[in-house]
Amino acid sequence: MSETAQNQQNSLPTPLFGHRDILDRLYAGFQQNKLHHGWILSGDEGIGKSRLARQIAAWILSVKPDSDNALFGRADILEAHPSELALDGEEARLVFANAHPDLLLLQPEEEEKNKSGLIKAEQIRKLPAFFAHHSARSKWRVAIIDNLDVVNRAGMNAMLKTLEEPPNNCLLLLISSRPGQVLPTIKSRCITANLAPLSTPDTIGVLRDIWPDADMSMLEVLAGLSKGAPGRALQLAEAGVLDLFEASCRILSDSRAKPADIIKIAEKWAGGGARGRPARRAASYLFAELLSLASLYSISASTALQNSFASIPFIQEAARTLASHHSAERLAVLHSDLAKSYQLNEQLYLDFAPVMTKFFFDLHSQSAKR
């Protein structure tokens, strides 16, 4: 995500779309004075887990020190549900600007020596001291770890003491796209909230907040491609690959496509270095989803039509063509090969062009259907 898009999302609060179920659970626990101290917000990448965590923090940190049993100490918003809270107050602005003194946001530090991209154990060790301090503006203190997937075992062990002996009026929000990798000792001390992808209307709503002047047809395509993950839609848009993906699908749908044209378009996905990384990442996602849809068509057309990718005509045509050319088993092999090749190339900084060229020719060929 570009710095501009990040600022659009985080500097000024915007309405929250989706995730009402988790907000209902938090609201019920808070109203009953039984809010659990540790939560794991899990779900696919790009569905808004970070945005949700900040919404929750803004809501909790609106509680004032003198509010006793009141949610905010103000009668006009005493019964405010977190999804209905108008995020236009000073507390919310401070939270979304990462400037609230009662909020600790832990992310990978952007520095030359942190090439691993991990949240380091010494960062996690800030938690006890932060929670031990008296709150400055609120009745509560909130810490967000964004995200748990880049915390190593030493870091996870470092947060156990906080989870085992939580101070009063403290909330720890842990974000994860891969909860299966979280230590059982952490899971057992937290409530795991499994977040679902957003609906298509909600996804479009998020994108319209970011790009209010964008063409609706483009937003609909992005919503279909992102499968309920607005963050992924942002990545695809900023990678600038929408036209390239459409052209690729049309090539794969054309049995008369020339080898030179196949090579040319395949190589466009394979830019090198950091500059080409967004396109390569987009390729690994988009073509994996295209193959998944083709596999569904190969098995059951009615099931395939429930996939959001099938709502986009040029993708539907390509998926149907691939399903007529390859068995579901063959498509699964191609899917696996692409994923492995992408990971290997990114780890070893190899040339991605041969991978994409072979992949395109394998797709364009006609293997035995059964």
Care to describe what's here?
The protein is an alpha/beta fold. It has 2 domains: 3-194, Rossmann fold (3-Layer(aba) Sandwich); 240-364. It contains 19 helices and 5 strands. The chain has a 5-stranded parallel sheet with strand order 2-3-4-1-5, sandwiched between helices. The longest helix has 27 residues, at 273-299. 40% of the residues are buried.
Shape from CA axes? elongated
Number of helices: 19
Remind me, CATH topology of the largest domain? Answer: Rossmann fold
Widest sheet: strand ordering: 2-3-4-1-5
For the record, what CATH class of the largest domain applies? Answer: Alpha Beta
Show unreliable segments: 1-10, 68-78
Q: Could you report the average pLDDT, rounded to the nearest whole number?
A: 87
| Helicity level | 40-55%
- Separation of the first and last Cα atoms: 42 Å
What is the strand tally? 5
Q: Based on helices, strands and strand pairing, what is the structural class?
A: alpha/beta
Named at the architecture level, the CATH assignment of the largest domain is: 3-Layer(aba) Sandwich
